[in-house]
Amino acid sequence: MENLVISDFKLGIIAGGQLGKMLVLAAANWDIQTFVMDREDHCPAASVCNGFFKGDPLNFEDVYRFGKKVDMLTFEIENVNIEAVKKLKAEGLRINPDPDVLEIIQDKGLQKQFYADKDIPTSPFRLFETVEEIREAVKNKNLTLPFVQKLRTGGYDGRGVEVIKTASNLDHLLEGPSMVEDLVQIDKEISVIAARNGQGEIKCFPVVEMIFNEKANLVEKLICPSSIDDQQQQEAIAIATRVISALKLQGLLAVEMFLDQDGKIWVNESAPRTHNSGHHTIESVITSQFEQQLRAIFNFSLGSTHLKLPAVMINLLGEPGYEGEVKYEGLTESMSVEGVKFHFYGKKISKPFRKMGHATILASNIDKAIEKADIVKNKLKITAWKKQP
Ligand SMILES: Nc1ncnc2c1ncn2[C@@H]1O[C@H](COP(=O)(O)OP(=O)(O)OP(=O)(O)O)[C@@H](O)[C@H]1O
Ligand SMILES: [Mg+2]
């Protein structure tokens, strides 16, 4: 890739949400031309990329035609048409991460089976075709409550996941082929983003801890460094390293894990791309997750993942009760908080809990960063010009 910077190299990115936008911005630093395909003309990446193509990532023709226009294909989502990327690969297009890896990851059943086959710690699971089969298994005492049901394909942001704790919850089971796993008694949710280049060099970002809002059951902030002890951090990093090397993935892999109440770490799921839990790296780590993805897919040496300053990342979500043209209230006051860095994704319409942007707050220690993040969170409200009826 010696000629990358001067070669008019065209990087194709499938989907142009906020992750795609930040990847485009990182690629612009190296003067790489970026082409983005997304369903929405006004997606976040559309305004910053070199070329935009409207298309559906799950549609064979759209993905195939887009692939034919670029020199390399990468992704901001895993739900893409596998047949199209396999055909493009067979015809010689460079695709990172590889379609075979995407195929495993986009099916939560195959993904779990992969962990089990590779002795990667993950909660015990079974696969079911229908809701009736699950009910039958419970009735016959082949399956005991509580458990978590996840649709094998198509879920995201918690959609496609049902926690079944009591017999009455069985009414909420989701239709379709699913994976059912033991409920983990979670102490903390953590994430490690690993990167691997074509020579097999691997580097991991520091462990990030997700802090939940108990009332809303939503991730409220992500903190780095996490509060887990050194040995647990090393173990989490070792697990993420094992997963990415077992997959032989060239690119980035975000490994979501649970630390249970007995101190054991379990892999929940992985995403073969940049991730919400790595946004803070733009400001807090020597190499951002977006630059690292580029280094990995172009087979350069991976950049330093050293944490420069403690950081808290908060998602800026649309306020519940408002839907319509977005309005930012309290922006001036929140900008005055020392160490805050804002990223607005350019989404024109706000909806309850929609990710409209994020803020990273840097401070000399993590407690100060948490304190400041809470101030920003209280000051900035993302509403809409019209209240929901
Ligand atoms: N086995 C489990 N035991 C306990 N809680 C679980 C389990 N699996 C999932 N959860 C809870 O449900 C959340 C969402 O699950 P998961 O990450 O698998 O779904 P997702 O739709 O891919 O979510 P996202 O896109 O937000 O990552 C987890 O972050 C965790 O809080
Ligand atoms: Mg998840």
Describe the 3D structure.
This protein has 389 residues and is of the alpha+beta class. The chain is built from 11 helices and 21 strands. A hairpin with a 5-residue loop joins strand 10 and strand 11. The longest helix is centred in the middle third of the chain and has 18 residues. The relative contact order is 0.11. The structure holds adenosine-5'-triphosphate and magnesium ion (MG). Adenosine-5'-triphosphate binds next to strand 7, strand 10 and strand 15.
Gist of the model:
The protein has helices spanning 18-29, 60-67, 82-90, 99-105, 108-117, 131-139, 230-247, 281-284, 289-297, 331-335, 366-379; strands at 10-14, 33-38, 51-54, 72-75, 94-95, 125-128, 147-151, 161-164, 178-182, 186-196, 202-204, 208-213, 218-224, 251-260, 265-271, 311-317, 324-329, 340-344, 349-350, 355-362, 381-384. The chain is of the alpha+beta class and 389 residues long.
Task: Give the SSE layout.
Layout: E1 10-14, H1 18-29, E2 33-38, E3 51-54, H2 60-67, E4 72-75, H3 82-90, E5 94-95, H4 99-105, H5 108-117, E6 125-128, H6 131-139, E7 147-151, E8 161-164, E9 178-182, E10 186-196, E11 202-204, E12 208-213, E13 218-224, H7 230-247, E14 251-260, E15 265-271, H8 281-284, H9 289-297, E16 311-317, E17 324-329, H10 331-335, E18 340-344, E19 349-350, E20 355-362, H11 366-379, E21 381-384
Parallel strand pairs: 1-2, 1-4, 2-3, 4-5
Antiparallel strand pairs: 6-9, 7-8, 7-9, 10-11, 10-12, 10-14, 12-13, 13-16, 14-15, 16-20, 17-19, 17-21, 18-20
Helix pairs in contact: 1-9, 2-3, 3-4
